[in-house]
Specification:
By secondary structure, the chain is of the alpha+beta class. The chain is built from 12 helices and 18 strands. The strands form 4 sheets. A 6-stranded antiparallel sheet has the order 7-6-11-10-9-8. The protein is flat and about 135 Å long.
């Protein structure tokens, strides 16, 4: 197609091209300034948000730590009262003074009851020699009675100062705790020491549930109480080797290694807290804010770690979003003003260009519309021809599908009617024989059976017709005894002389399933017929039919024979239509049987070997 020669650019277009370069430079400058402003704003906002988040987390953590310290003090005060009261108890003084066996036994029982009521781990009384004379755990294998605790700090300080508190690892129980001791005095001087051991399992469990690592240290920085048991007896600061050796020799903390806590990058903040990285048990390393507070009435220090990663990220993100919410509208307004100024400069040039271009565009549009119309008419004709071909192909596919369905239904009808027709023929031959012999009553019975079978043929035809229409029989309670008897009746004439091989085992109380008697008979007939044909004329042929309760509200119908089994090449497609090893068979029996059982919510399975085949039909119990 011939293209018309391009027209010479008008003066208005030349003006627009002259204005294009300065406008681009203005926008590039604006973009650079905007980017710099956004980056600076995000950096400043992020730092501000981080600082605010640190202050907020520190304030909340300090409040939380003070609360935990107050609660710990309450636990301590409650347990401090026990040794104080026992130190003035008459029975305690009497038992220590007399060392009488009965008095000590009564004291054991009293301490045992008192320990259960005060939640103390153990309460025990020692003489001035440090040997425990009575204890609340006197009946336990780890009883303190008879043990010498003279080397313990809480015993020596109590004898010297009247009271003492000492946190240590138990030498017998191997459990850490706080030993609170009081001296027992008499008019003649000290006669013993009362000790109550306090364990902090409940406190530590509450701290662990709070989700924040919490621990308590003594003045040396050794962790005594912690929400993570693996941190116990670790240190928050380095202890000199000479002091470390002395602590280990005292056995205050057992054989603990007194390693440093898994902290690094510790940075102190202005408010007395510190930032650090900690490796929690079973977790990855994270950043925390550590706050400290004194535990009242003790020399202990409670320290809590507050997670920082999430709080800092959220605060930084929020501050940057606020900064963007302020900067972006300002930049948008500036861009709008710049754009407006440029538009005013372009208005006149565009108006001139529009006038010059109008006639040229009208001509080009007219030519394009003509070409588009011709192309559209061609496409419409092609679409019409394609639609006609598609409709013809669809009709051919529908016809082919209809013929396939009709063929399958015709084959199914021929297969299912074959059994009752063969039985009718056998009854007719028998009736003629009985008439020749003059046995009219027997002949009448055969004719009545023929009529019944004829009705059944009609029923089967109706069933198969309904199956072809994808209809379903309504499931109703059906006695399995009637199903088995009906199937045997249909097979008796065709396999005369071979029915003795079938052994039926039905429960006396009877079992009923949800299904249709006629369709279930078809299933059983197919299975029995296949078994009889597989056994042939063997003298040891045996087919066992039994019904029994199955799991989960089901009934099992089992058909087992001692035939040669199913060949391997048939097993894979056993329930596939038209799969058969018989010369005259259609290969539809098992396929139809599986469909019938599935219609009633059941399933059929098979097990086969060279010793025989077992078909199991599982149906819902009625």
């Amino acid at each position: 197609m011939h293209n018309p020669p391009m027209s010479k650019p008008s003066a208005a277009l030349v003006d627009l091209q002259d204005l294009d370069q300065p406008m681009r430079r203005a926008w590039l400058l604006f973009a650079g300034l905007a980017l710099a402003l956004v980056v600076a704003g995000l950096l400043v906002a992020g730092e501000y948000g981080r600082k605010q988040a640190l202050e907020t987390v520190a304030a909340q953590s300090r409040i939380d730590a003070n609360l935990k310290a107050s609660l710990l003090r309450a636990v301590l005060e409650r347990q401090r009262a026990t040794p104080l009261v026992l130190a003035d108890d008459v029975e305690v003084k009497s038992a220590l003074s007399t060392r009488d066996g009965r008095a000590l036994q009564r004291l054991n029982e009293k301490l045992e009851a008192l320990s259960a009521n005060t939640d103390a781990a153990v309460i025990y009384v020692m003489g001035t020699d440090g040997v425990a004379l009575a204890a609340s755990n006197w009946q336990e294998p780890t009883s303190f009675v008879g043990n010498d605790y003279a080397f313990r700090e809480y015993f020596r300080l109590a004898l010297r100062d009247g009271k003492a508190e000492h946190f240590a690892m138990g030498t017998v129980s191997k459990r850490p705790g706080l030993y609170i001791s009081r001296r027992v005095d008499s008019p003649d001087g000290p006669i013993g020491v009362v000790v109550a051991k306090l364990e902090f399992d409940d406190v530590e469990a509450e701290w662990l549930a709070s989700g924040k690592p919490v621990y308590v240290t003594d003045r040396r920085g050794i962790v005594l109480i912690t929400s993570f048991p693996s941190w116990r007896f670790m240190t928050t600061r380095t202890i000199p080797q000479d002091r470390l050796a002395a602590i280990r020799d005292s056995l205050q903390f057992g054989d603990a290694s007194l390693l440093a806590l898994p902290f690094r990058d510790v940075e102190a903040t202005s408010d007395g807290s510190s930032e650090l990285r900690a490796l929690l048990p079973g977790d990855s390393e994270r950043r925390f804010l550590r706050v400290e507070t004194l535990v009242p009435t003790t020399s202990w220090r409670l320290e809590q770690l507050a997670p920082l990663d999430g709080a800092l990220a959220a605060a930084t993100r929020e501050a940057r979003l606020i900064a963007l919410a302020i900067i972006v509208p300002l930049l948008t307004l500036a861009a709008f003003l710049l754009r407006r100024r440029q538009r005013l400069a372009l208005v006149s040039a565009r108006e001139r260009a529009a006038r010059d271009e109008l006639e040229r565009r009208v001509a080009e549009r007219t030519r394009d519309l003509s070409l588009a119309r011709d192309h559209l008419e061609t496409e419409i004709a092609d679409h019409r021809r394609t639609g006609e071909k598609l409709q013809a192909v669809q009709q051919e596919l529908v016809q082919a599908n209809r013929l396939a369905i009709l063929g399958q239904v015709a084959a199914g009808v021929a297969h299912e009617i074959n059994q009752p027709v063969a039985t009718i023929r056998a009854y007719a031959d028998n009736a003629r024989t009985f008439l020749d012999r003059g046995q009219q009553e027997t002949a009448v019975e055969n004719l009545a059976s023929i009529a019944e079978l004829t009705e059944r043929v009609g029923t089967i035809t109706d069933e198969l017709r309904s199956f072809a229409r994808k209809g379903r029989f309504v499931a109703e309670p059906t006695p399995m005894r009637e199903v088995v008897e009906g199937a045997l009746m249909l097979l008796r004439s065709r396999f005369a002389g071979r029915m003795d091989a079938i052994v039926v085992d039905l429960p006396e109380n009877g079992l009923s399933v949800f299904g249709s008697r006629i369709r279930l008979e078809q299933v059983l007939i197919n299975l029995l017929q296949n078994a009889l044909e597989a056994l042939g004329n063997r003298t040891d042929a045996e087919i066992r039919v039994r019904c029994e309760d199955g799991p989960s509200g089901t009934v099992l119908l089992v058909v087992a024979d001692n035939g040669p089994g199913i060949p391997q090449h048939i097993r894979e497609d056993l329930f596939t239509p038209f799969n058969t090893t018989k010369d005259e068979g259609l290969g539809l029996g098992l396929a139809i049987s599986k469909e019938i059982v599935a219609d009633y919510g059941g399933e059929i399975s098979v097990e086969t070997s060279d010793r025989g085949t077992v078909f199991t039909v599982r149906l819902k119990r009625a």
